[in-house]
Specification:
This protein is α+β, with helices and mostly antiparallel strands and 817 residues long. Helix content is 24%, strand content 21%. The protein has 18 helices and 34 strands. It has an eight-stranded antiparallel beta sheet. It has a six-stranded mixed beta sheet with strand order 17-29-30-34-31-32. A five-stranded antiparallel beta sheet has the order 1-14-15-10-5, with no helix packed on it. Helix 5 (341-353) packs across helix 17, helix 8 packs across helix 10 (457-469) and helix 10 (457-469) packs antiparallel against helix 12 (505-525). The longest helix is centred in the middle third of the chain and has 21 residues, at 505-525. The radius of gyration is 27 Å and the shape is globular. The N and C termini lie far apart (68 Å). The relative contact order is 0.10.
Length: 817
């Protein structure tokens, strides 16, 4: 029972008559959603036409239960507001859970998608109450008001969604629909005919972590406008943030000037409750709630809502959102002829999820004033740098440039590039300074256009050098342990210093190496010869944690592992100077069932993967260390066959394509296709783990396109696409690149065999020297790439010295860009 601070009864205002038809619900009935299994979607699409409504292929519910943590609610591309349904599921990191046994608890305005950590954001829940015995007796507390959703015959909840729209039917008979602009949400609550005193709760304080302090809530007694805010805890870091809201109400199909009753309640979770006059010209009463959000103030939250959704036009806001999504998604076109429909749905659904985060908080940075863009929800760069930003390079470079500008601006004010960030706060670093390969990716691909995109080359390079050279006061939150890195050329396991935890030493050595490789590529473009030499040398520091004498238990031929070293004076291959970590550690084969997550007791040197899995960027050197191509292939086969490959975690992502470097691209193609067959589908369980802010989504997109990116380089590894033709429109180059798979004959359901192996490649009609990779110039020029496919898995990369993908130790990254 709520304890009331005030209870004011207002005169019920007669609703104005309206020409709005009683058939209004039919006019904006929800889109129908069918969640199909792989066998259900075996139909093939037979026409080769431009897909003008790719949003129709987006299934927003993929990965929304069993740990996928995907946000299925309404948002714009990189929108700050992500309005959606919250549940009492223990896995409600994105609020939602597709398991119908969990209760709905509210409809909140801010979420992340696909993350681990605690339940982030989920601020400012609204909740409809169709009936109470009296205003004062309404159950406003979340633990009491929560209720189940209606359930469909197949046992799934009666929820529906598409890009920019979400709907659910609650067991109380209330239908809820949601849509969004960048910084505001619009809710539509349709109450059942039995509800003669429809009410809405505005819950100011119950975020995902139930962490509020300093709550403020106000009711405008004339208009019913609710303003307020509170202070909340970070979900993956030590800080607290302030956020504010502004809620206005309007009848849909009828008018009222103010709510009939209103009040605020006190206690651990203050909020407001309003009663609305029922519609006099419709069987059902529908109330619109417009919710502005700001990290600056309630006044700015009101201004955001008023400017972005001025007319409470729900259907217009939905249409605008869908149009925005369609323009973006349609830049990548696939030919669906002869392709199972599920693959097209999986493709566009995955592409969609790569544009949920990071979020555009421009104008909402409470920490400093700047005219530069400000992006947030980097959760975390460790997850996304490998595949998500290279995917943006292909089709969304203008937003990529804005993100880079925002990251540089953060470095100017905080000293280092952001690594993990949420709700305007620094969060815990998982590995290296992985803003470096993101900036490197942008500059290596778009250096000739950087100025036109308002990215300063000098500022970008300054930001990179700050990460590389300057040690922050707390490398748990930003930057690197740079002093030790520069002194010893690796991170020793027995160095303890103030400023950060002595963990993940091997992982950080490998990641710092790649971070510095990224910087060397930028330095090369800027003709900084000395820096090229310095950072390429540092890029080779992974060798300092390679112990050639460690073997895999029961497999003595699998020899040489990344290991932690105790001695800063003799880091390489000296007896007694290594800290042994069982190569099975942190894998499914670990006899100790260890974990390698982010905690202060991680003393083994590895993070979220085993010594069998971690690989540096110089694959040719790794092959040499492991005894040549055949030994390397044997090791890769064992990684898969004995389940060391972990599809749920990013360090494993490149491994399926590493056969390329041993001149066996057919094996890469088959392994990558088996991963899609075994680990991805279009059901609510369709992801192998957390979507990780779009990292797993972008990974799937690249595999479905028949490619794998090498961040901060101008090369992309090549296999065969799941479609006979894929095209990419790049608005910065104003070109369209097309990849055509000749002899395409479909995709084997189990990923094995088939006419899917690349025999030869031509670019604009001319033979290309490699079957294993493409250069970025192909995408700059807008070339036509034709692949001749074969059923022969023993294809090679081709003849000649340039057929294999480049590696640092073979001089592949030493020449001009």
């Amino acid at each position: 029972m709520a304890r009331w601070l005030m209870l004011l009864s207002a005169l019920c205002l007669l609703a104005h008559t309206s020409a709005h038809s009683l058939t209004r619900l039919a006019a904006h009935s929800r889109p129908q959603l069918t969640v199909r299994s792989q066998t259900d979607t075996a139909t093939t699409l037979s026409r080769n036409t431009t897909i003008t409504d790719p949003a129709s292929y987006v299934n927003v519910f993929i990965g929304t239960t069993n740990g996928g943590h995907v946000f299925p609610g309404a948002t714009l591309p990189h929108g700050m507001v992500k309005v959606g349904l919250d549940t009492d599921s223990p896995g409600n990191q994105a609020g939602y859970d597709a398991n119908s046994t969990f209760n709905a608890t509210g409809f909140s305005q801010l979420h992340d998608s696909g993350t681990g950590g605690g339940s982030s954001l989920s601020n400012f829940k609204l909740w409809p109450l169709p009936e109470c015995e009296s205003f004062a007796s309404c159950n406003t507390s979340m633990s009491v008001r929560k209720t189940l959703r209606k359930v469909l015959p197949d046992g799934s909840p009666d929820d529906a969604g598409s890009p920019g729209y979400f709907a659910t039917n609650l067991s109380t008979g209330v239908r809820v629909e949601l849509t969004a602009s960048r910084r505001a949400a619009l809710h539509r609550y349709t109450f059942p005919p039995s509800s003669r005193e429809p009410r809405i709760v505005v819950d100011i304080t119950n975020d995902g972590l139930i962490s509020n302090t300093e709550p403020v809530v106000n009711v405008n007694t004339t208009t019913g406008r609710i303003t307020g805010g509170a202070r909340f805890a970070s979900s993956f870091g030590p800080g607290r943030y302030n956020v504010y809201t502004c809620v206005d109400f309007k009848g849909d199909g009828y008018d009222f000037q103010a709510p009939a009753e209103y009040g605020v309640w006190l206690g651990n979770a203050p909020g407001a409750l309003l009663t609305f006059p029922p519609s006099s010209n419709s069987i059902d009463t529908t109330i619109l709630a417009r919710v502005g959000v700001s990290f600056i103030s309630s006044d700015q939250a009101c201004a955001n809502a008023e400017s972005e959704i001025p007319d409470f036009d729900f259907d217009g806001t939905v249409a605008t959102a869908r149009e925005t999504w369609n323009e973006l998604l349609s830049r990548i076109q696939v030919d669906t002829q002869g392709v199972d429909k599920e693959f097209t749905e999986l493709f566009y659904s995955s592409l969609y999820r790569t544009h949920i985060s990071p979020a555009d908080y421009t104008g909402e940075n409470p920490n400093w004033n700047s005219a530069e863009p400000y992006y947030d929800s980097f959760y975390c760069n460790w997850d996304t740098y490998r595949t998500m930003y290279p995917l943006m390079s292909l089709h969304d470079p203008e937003v990529f440039a804005r993100i880079v500008r925002g990251m540089i601006n953060i470095q100017k004010h905080e000293g280092w590039l952001p690594e993990c960030r949420g709700a305007t706060l620094q969060q815990y670093i998982q590995g290296g300074s992985n803003g470096d390969p993101i900036l490197g990716e942008f500059f290596v691909k778009f250096y000739e256009h950087a100025s036109a995109l308002n990215v300063s080359a000098d500022d970008l390079y300054t930001a990179l050098l700050a990460d590389a050279e300057d040690q922050p006061p707390n490398w748990n939150l930003q930057g690197r342990q740079a002093t030790v890195w520069k002194q010893y050329s690796f991170i020793p396991s027995n160095i303890y210093a103030s400023g950060g935890a002595a963990t993940k030493q091997v992982s950080r050595t490998l990641e710092y190496s790649f971070n510095d490789f990224s910087i060397s590529q930028v330095a090369k473009i800027l003709n900084k010869t000395d820096d090229v030499a310095k950072y390429q040398a540092r890029a080779g520091n992974f060798i300092n944690v390679w112990n050639e004498r460690v073997t895999l238990p029961e497999y003595p031929s699998i020899k040489g592992m990344m290991q932690a070293s105790h001695s800063p004076m003799t880091p390489r291959f000296v007896d007694g100077e290594w800290s042994y970590t069982d190569p099975r550690h942190c894998s499914v084969n670990d006899p100790l069932h260890s974990t390698c997550y982010l905690d202060a007791t991680n003393r083994d040197g590895f993070y979220e993967s085993s010594p069998m899995v971690y690989v540096p960027q110089d694959t040719a050197k790794l092959i040499l260390l492991q005894g040549g191509n055949e030994s390397f292939i044997d090791r890769l086969n064992l990684i898969f066959d004995q389940h060391y490959f972990d599809v749920t975690d990013e360090p494993s992502q490149q491994i399926p394509f590493m056969y390329h470097y041993a001149d066996r691209p057919g094996l890469s193609t088959q392994r990558s296709r088996m991963i899609i067959a075994e680990s991805y589908n279009t059901t609510v369980n369709g992801l192998p783990g957390n979507d990780d802010s779009g990292a797993m989504a972008s990974y799937a997109v690249f595999y479905l396109m028949g490619m794998y990116p090498l961040p901060a380089t101008r090369q992309i590894l090549l296999a065969s696409p799941y479609f006979p033709k894929v095209s990419f429109y790049n608005p910065v180059f104003n070109t369209t690149t097309t990849i055509i798979a000749n002899n395409f004959s479909g995709n084997p359901q189990d990923g094995k065999g088939g006419t899917v192996f690349v025999k030869s490649v031509t670019i604009d009609g001319q033979p290309w020297h490699s079957n294993c990779y493409l250069d970025w110039d192909v995408f700059v020029k807008g070339s036509t790439v034709e692949l001749e496919l074969t059923s022969d898995i023993d294809t090679t990369c081709g003849e000649g010295p340039d057929a294999l993908p480049p590696s640092l130790s073979t001089g592949g990254y030493s020449g001009p860009i």
